[in-house]
């Protein structure tokens, strides 16, 4: 009987523990977030469909011009009665059926096919650049949420300490060891912590909604984050060639430059002639015998009045290629400048974080502990303890802000390096 009573007592407890654990949101690591953004974000999938559209258009590059079919009368007199009177009652004229087909130049088809295939590569480079931007947004939001959770934890710890000080002051008040003003000061601090907590929790919800939106999920989906912040080493500055090989926007310009060259080849191929064939069948009327005609045709695009357009387009595309090359050079120059500035900022932020961790925060913590010990020994007043605690709290929050700035700079640096 004792065994069954123990079971009856433990079963609700086990159920409560089980359902309580199930209610906790699962931890979503950063790499899972980045993978979900890459797989689900519709802004990335549009590039894949556009690339498929360009690939599908390549099949149309080998299309022939539609054949022309015509039928009617050929060399038939208007006044058949006069012809009959002259030819013993026999009419004259012909009924003709004509078929014409132009034969495209294979060199033109090859040039157009290569141009359409190159456009798909441009879309793929655009997808990589968009992915790099979305990954940077996701990393910034994820690190921001981690920092916000650490701030909330700091506020909770400070609120707990303030609540403890308030209870101590209320216990000392009847013995004239605490003033009523100091008790109200602690109560005000606790209320201010409540406001700060609400603000931070609102920012945390906004980060959660933004991350779910990037992952194309329900914005209200709850999940936990890995609160272990990374300390990545500072990557060295690459040279221009290595930077160009890393950045997807530069690769996109390289592919755009290649597409301009392919389009220039399409315009240049217009100087090549096209060929055609025509067959006419004439069915004679009266005593007129049946006849036929077979004609071969060739276009002459090199004549001056026909060559003016494609020559002008070829020259214009050459200037367009020069513009893309200058755009590429300007992009690399600006990227190198931004990387140098970010590296300088990262060095400064790392020094600030190290100063917080090794000097400022330990000293302020000891200051609070010493002041609290003096208060316990009745050699310090409660406002001094509250002020020391508040200074330590604000500095911890400032430290977390500095750490968030360091992570944001790291994300921007990695975004510039595309890693």
Report on the structure:
There is one protein chain. The chain has 419 residues and is α+β, with helices and mostly antiparallel strands. It has one domain: Up-down Bundle (Outer membrane efflux proteins (OEP)), CATH 1.20.1600. The chain is built from ten helices and four strands. It has helices at residues 2-23, 30-40, 42-58, 80-86, 106-172, 180-214, 240-246, 248-269, 304-376, 382-417, and strands spanning 68-74, 94-103, 275-284, 291-298. A four-stranded antiparallel beta sheet has the order 1-2-3-4, with no helix packed on it. A hairpin with a 6-residue loop joins strand 3 and strand 4 (291-298).
Structural domains: how many: 1
The termini sit apart by 65 Å
Spatially, the strands of the biggest sheet line up as 1-2-3-4
Backbone CA Rg: 41 Å
Describe the structure concisely for a colleague.
The chain contains ten helices and four strands; from the N terminus they run H-H-H-E-H-E-H-H-H-H-E-E-H-H.
């Amino acid at each position: 009987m004792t065994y069954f009573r123990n079971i009856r007592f433990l079963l609700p407890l086990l159920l409560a523990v089980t359902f309580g654990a199930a209610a906790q949101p699962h931890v979503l690591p950063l790499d899972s977030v980045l993978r979900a953004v890459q797989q689900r974000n519709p802004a990335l999938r549009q590039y894949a469909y556009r690339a498929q559209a360009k690939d599908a258009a390549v099949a149309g590059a080998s299309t022939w011009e539609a054949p022309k079919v015509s039928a009617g009368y050929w060399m038939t007199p208007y006044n058949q009665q006069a012809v009959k009177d002259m030819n013993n009652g026999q009419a004259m004229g012909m009924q003709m059926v004509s078929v014409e087909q132009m034969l495209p130049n294979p060199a033109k088809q090859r040039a157009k096919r290569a141009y359409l295939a190159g456009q798909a590569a441009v879309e793929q480079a655009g997808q990589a650049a968009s992915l790099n931007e979305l990954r940077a947004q996701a990393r910034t939001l994820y690190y921001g949420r981690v920092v916000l959770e650490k701030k909330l934890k700091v506020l909770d710890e400070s609120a707990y300490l303030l609540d403890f000080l308030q209870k101590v002051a209320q216990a000392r008040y009847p013995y004239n060891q605490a003033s009523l003003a100091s008790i109200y000061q602690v109560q005000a601090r606790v209320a201010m912590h409540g406001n700060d907590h609400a603000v931070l929790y609102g920012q945390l919800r906004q980060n959660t909604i933004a991350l779910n939106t990037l992952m194309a999920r329900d914005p209200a989906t709850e999940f936990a984050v890995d609160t272990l912040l990374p300390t990545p080493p500072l990557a060295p500055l690459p040279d221009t060639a290595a930077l160009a090989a890393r950045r997807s926007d530069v690769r996109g310009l390289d592919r755009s430059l290649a597409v301009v060259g392919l389009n220039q080849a399409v315009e240049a191929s217009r100087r090549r002639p096209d060929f055609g064939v025509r067959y006419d069948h004439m069915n004679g009327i009266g005593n007129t015998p049946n006849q036929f005609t077979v004609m071969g045709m060739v276009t002459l695009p090199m004549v001056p009045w026909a060559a003016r357009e494609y020559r002008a387009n070829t020259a214009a595309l050459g200037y367009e290629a020069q513009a893309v090359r200058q755009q590429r050079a300007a992009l690399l120059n600006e990227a190198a400048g931004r990387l140098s500035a970010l590296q300088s900022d990262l060095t400064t932020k790392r020094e600030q974080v190290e100063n917080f961790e090794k000097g400022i925060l330990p000293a302020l913590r000891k200051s609070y502990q010493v002041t609290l010990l003096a208060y316990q020994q009745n050699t310090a007043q409660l406002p001094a303890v509250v002020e020391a605690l508040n200074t330590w709290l604000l500095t911890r929050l400032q430290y977390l802000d500095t750490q968030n700035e360091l992570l944001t700079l790291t994300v921007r640096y990695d975004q510039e390096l595309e890693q």
